[in-house]
Amino acid sequence: MTKTLQKSASSPQLNANVEWVNGTAFWTFYVTIVLALWLCLSILVPIGLAWTYANLIHNAVSFYLLHWKKGTPVYYDQGKYDHLTFWEQIDGGSQFTSNKKFFTIIPIAIFIIATNSSDFREQPLLLNLVSLLAVLIAKMPQMHTVRIFGINK
Amino acid sequence: MASTTTTTGTETVQGRRHQGPEAGVWLERKRSLGDQAEAKAAVPASSLLHNPGDAGGPRPRLAAAPRQPPAKVPARRTHQEEFAEVLNPMRQSLIYLGWVLLMQIGRVRDFLDRFFGLHAAGSAGKGGVPPIVSDSQDFYTRRLYMRIVDIFNRPITSAPGAWIDVAERRREGDPCREHPTPTGRTRRCLNLGSYNYLGFAANDAYCTPKVVEELRRSGASTCSPGADAGRTEGHVEMEQVVAGFLGVEKAFVYGMGFATNAFTIPTLCSKGCLVLSDEMNHKSIVDGVKLSGASVKVFRHNDVRHLEYLLRKSIVEGQSRTGRQWRKILIVVEGIYSMEGEMVRLSEIVRLKKKYGAYLYLDEAHSIGALGATGRGVCEQQGVSPRDVDVMMGTFTKSFGSCGGYIAGSAALVDYVRAASPASYHATAMSPPAARQIVASLTVISGRDGSDRGGEKLARLRQNANYFRAELMRRGFHVLGDMDSPVVPIMCYYAAKIPALSRMCLERNLAVVLVGFPATALCLSRMRICISASHTREELENAVEIIDEIGDRCMIKYIGERKAARLATDEVGGNRDTRLVSSKSI
Fold first, then answer.
1. Given CB atoms, is B81 within the 8 Å cutoff of chain A?
2. Pick from A23, A28, A32: CB nearest B523
3. Which of A132, B63, B214, B230 could make an S-S bridge to A111, C-beta 3.0–4.6 Å?
């Protein structure tokens, strides 16, 4: 099995905005970024709440980048993907791909670690849960191109 | 004709770092290495049993059937495999991090600009008109492209021969929106960026007087489309000469190379047709296919098995909603892919198209006049008959020093295209001096002018290209492309190295073209060098030294020199265990 730059022998990705997500090192890079975020936070905030902060910041940033920002920075797409968020552009819009599963598992994993490290106290648990639900609902296949109340149409 | 990625002989590399092999000797060595490999591989397996101590050959396989044809030299690795080896996870992560930082810094600057009101946001419309583009639409242009815009769009002030005058510029005004302005000074640089494969871009002793004479006789423009009043004797002669050169029945010429693809494909295909297009096809093909309304399926670059899979699947399933048969299936490939420098697998694709009854459209923009013993393109290079290619397309901008493109093939095809293409009715016919340049350059290339300048040019181009590619590979650069291809891409991968390399090269009077995202993939930026027959060996040697120094400073020697030498022996010896990557480069 020959090594290639894409994770598997997938069909050609024509959307230049998202084809780099299929690179072999992208998952490693993403996990490293999350860990780096936690490291920085553990210097600044009480250690028990570091993962909670990491969870909230990660969910806020990833929600904005994956589910709010639409379109591509590539000018010659001629607006083909202007109505699609990054999440909807990944893998050509197909659901249940390994990339999408990875993106779904990461917030769940961070949530579990955060609630464990804050000893399941009510306030952090509630905040973590709400931000997790926001991010998870946005990733559901039923929400593909759904804009609630026309927000961000 | 085995095409291996590295072809330096082992004897030349060890211990003699700065002496590149002479091209003629080197070519002989390449052939002899290839012959050795074939000789070794052709030895029947049974005789290997009698020489168990024979080291260096393929491992003896006891069960090998002697009836099998002799194994070819091991198939060359695809670029994707090479990228995967060079780009380990740490390098990929650093490249991603670089792009993330650039985007975030751009966002922060946009926010600060808006907060402090320093620069007018967007192209603010005057008098209640909405802006042409919103801030987010041209974010990439303003905050990434314009940061390094001094390496793009450099104005030139001379003909693009082997040497070129590049205008110096300085930045003033809004850095996000204003292009640099020329200062009036120019810099004479070695031209490694122009498509000047045979050296016809500059003054030519045979062609230029004829062009000037034609300009005086027929004027600068025909002022009419071909079907109306724009078709002169010069055009008729040009099309006959082109058809004769390519070995086909007829040819039809457009005034613009991009438009040749963009308007011929819609003429040939429409709704209900299927176009199978290579992943790395040029934008003109992509636009032509979009314009035609045909269905399109993209196959992985040069991957003949994927193409066959798509062919079989499409024929079996038919059109998408109705399941009806496709009206026709057109496979579109290029001769040389300009960003990869590699050639198409033409004989295999021709075999496929005959097997499944598809048509083949070959875009020889970069390969016509540059490949093949007599310059007849990739068909000659790979031993494929031009009759097997249904639609031959090419441009005159690269090897012939003119403008425009052609569609060539059978008389029925060309007559139909002439009758149905919008260029005949709506596009002004080619300028007569440009047509004359085409005839003159083809006369020189085919030797009909009575001299052997054409053959010399072709040989010099091939030698220059092979020398340059082999020398850079020997020094440890990751160079793409096949042997004999005049396009030499050197990988630099990182976004920040793009402007660094370009600016350093310009300081040393080398004019090179760097490309990055979105023209290439995010992680795969490169320096694309175009070799010309008008470059002398000395100029190329100097260029190699300069690129060597700059490459050391920018750390783009991803393949270490010892590993490059070992790779050469690997291809022959069959040892696949070596790792490709040098630890010297970040």
1. yes
2. A23
3. A132
